[in-house]
Amino acid sequence: MGVRGAGSAGQGTAQVLALASLVRLGRARRTSGAPSRRLVLPEDMTAPLGCDAVTVPASHGPLLLSRLPRVGCVYADRADWWWIVPSDSDVALSWPAPARYSNEARVPEASDGPGLIHRPGDTMPYTPPIPLYLALCQVTGTAPAWSRPLSA
């Protein structure tokens, strides 16, 4: 899927951008200049879909655990819990506050050094993003984006 500029043959063509390119450009604009580092997955884990993370306050962590059918790798420090999700789990989803979406599962360099507090029994590190999103909406009292009324 791409976007082409209008124009007749011979007048030149606009650059074609794929959806993945547009997503990367949008992410580059949102990336903070704050020092960060990536969460490190256990050595026996495979991440064929890449890794991002959803960060929630530590007080929400246990509430989310009890609502999920499958939990992947979860990291925590005193203030936050990081849930590993496949890359691009933020496309077309507006994660409710106080959650924060972290591309490439990056954590602030200044954090307490989150430790792994949960790992699944298999080699896939992911918590499915839609059940996590819905559980987070329940915990925060937020209506899922697709169920909100549209405004004109």
User: What gyration radius follows from the Cα positions, in whole Å?
Assistant: 18 Å
Lateral arrangement of strands in the main beta sheet: 5-2-4-3-7
Roughly what percent helix?
A: 10-25%
- Give the N-to-C terminal Cα separation: 28 Å
Uncertain ranges: 1-10
Mean pLDDT: 83
Oligomer: single chain
Strand-residue proportion: 15-25%
Shape: globular
Derived from helix and strand composition plus strand pairing, the structural class reads alpha+beta
Order of helices and strands: HEEHEEEEEH
Please count the helical segments.
3
Largest sheet: 5 strands, antiparallel
Q: In total, how many beta strands? A: 7
Annotation keywords:
152 residues, alpha+beta, five-stranded antiparallel beta sheet, two-stranded antiparallel ribbon, 7 strands, disordered N terminus
Model description:
It is a single chain. Helices cover 19% and strands 18% of the residues. It has 152 residues and is α+β, with helices and mostly antiparallel strands. It has a five-stranded antiparallel beta sheet, with no helix packed on it. It is globular and about 50 Å long. The two termini are 28 Å apart. Residues 1-10 have low confidence and may be disordered.
What's the structural blueprint in terms of helices and strands?
Layout: H1 19-30, E1 36-38, E2 52-57, H2 61-65, E3 74-76, E4 80-85, E5 100-102, E6 106-108, E7 115-118, H3 129-140
Antiparallel strand pairs: 1-6, 2-4, 2-5, 3-4, 3-7
Report a brief summary of the structure:
By secondary structure, the chain is of the alpha+beta class. It has helices spanning 19-30, 61-65, 129-140; strands spanning 36-38, 52-57, 74-76, 80-85, 100-102, 106-108, 115-118.
